[in-house]
Every structure is written in C-alpha cells, then in structure tokens.
Amino acid sequence: GTVFVLNGPNLNLLGTREPEIYGSDTLADIERALHEQAGTLGLDISFHQTNHEGQLVDWLHEASRQGAKAVLLNAAAYTHTSIALLDAIKAIEVPVIEVHLSDPTKREEFRHVSYVGMGAADCVQGLGARSYSVALEKAAAL
Ligand code: DQA
C-alpha cells in the first residue's frame, strides 16, 4: 500500500527554521528516512510539501482516489485554523494520522486547538523528526 505524507506551510524551511523547536533535520532528511523505513515495512511513500491550504485539500482527495493505506498529515499552522482540512479528512475513508515535530499542546494557547485532530484517527507529536517514523509504524499497523 501507499502512505501519503503531506506537509504544510513553512515545513520546506526545516533545518534552519527555529531549530531549537523543530530540530536540525531538513524535510529532505525526513523524506529520505521515511523512504528507507517504508522499504522495510513493505510500503510506498508519496511525499509532498506545500505552503497552500487548498493544495493539502486536493492531496487528501488524491490519496482517497488512489486508495492510499493512510495519510500522515503535518498541516503545520493550518492544523489550528482549517475547517476545510477537517472537512476533507471527514470526507475521505483513508485514515489520517496527525503529525507534529513539536508538541503544540505545550506551546502558545493558539496552538492548543487542532481541527485536524478532530478528524484524525491518531496523532504523534513532540518527538521531533521521529514523530514521522512512529506515525509510519502506526500506519503500517492499520
Ligand atoms: C508544527 C506545529 C504547528 O503549531 C506549527 O504551526 C508548525 C509546525 C510541528 O510540526 O511541530 O508549523 O506542525
């Protein structure tokens, strides 16, 4: 099966973006590690990043059309604002696992609400880049 890994705004800047919060791994590092891990799990990865909300909606639909096994979604700041993403998650049958490098519940109050979380099957956060690999293990076990 294929696991879509969707990344939202500003995650293209990982590595240099607030490394004290997000770590020093780049998104390319994370993608490489996930591809390796996916190989050992017998999964394929379809990995994407965008700074645009509607593109994330389109990719959720695409994951559904392709019959993906799961979606790992780090919607970044749209996590805390996007009813459109919540509706898209609810509109598809593919299970969505919410992913964050940091733990938003331990940060500013405006990060405490997660619209993504209201539709997601599971959530892995606060483990840095390892959040993605733990989420992929969860996806493999679905
Ligand atoms: C994030 C947490 C969000 O609150 C923030 O807006 C991000 C990254 C994370 O991975 O820790 O851009 O999703």
From TrEMBL:
GO terms for molecular function: 3-dehydroquinate dehydratase activity. SUPFAM superfamilies: Type II 3-dehydroquinate dehydratase (SSF52304). Pfam families: DHquinase_II (PF01220). It comes from the Bacteria. The active site is at residues 22, 100. Signal peptide: none annotated. It catalyses: 3-dehydroquinate = 3-dehydroshikimate + H2O. The record marks 17 as: Transition state stabilizer. Keywords: Amino-acid biosynthesis, Aromatic amino acid biosynthesis, Lyase. PROSITE patterns: DEHYDROQUINASE_II. One of its GO terms (biological process) is aromatic amino acid family biosynthetic process. CDD domains: DHQase_II. Substrate binds at residues 74, 80, 87, 101-102, 111. Coiled coil: none annotated. Belongs to the type-II 3-dehydroquinase family. Homododecamer. Catalyzes a trans-dehydration via an enolate intermediate. This is 3-dehydroquinate dehydratase. It comes from Qipengyuania vulgaris. The gene is aroQ.
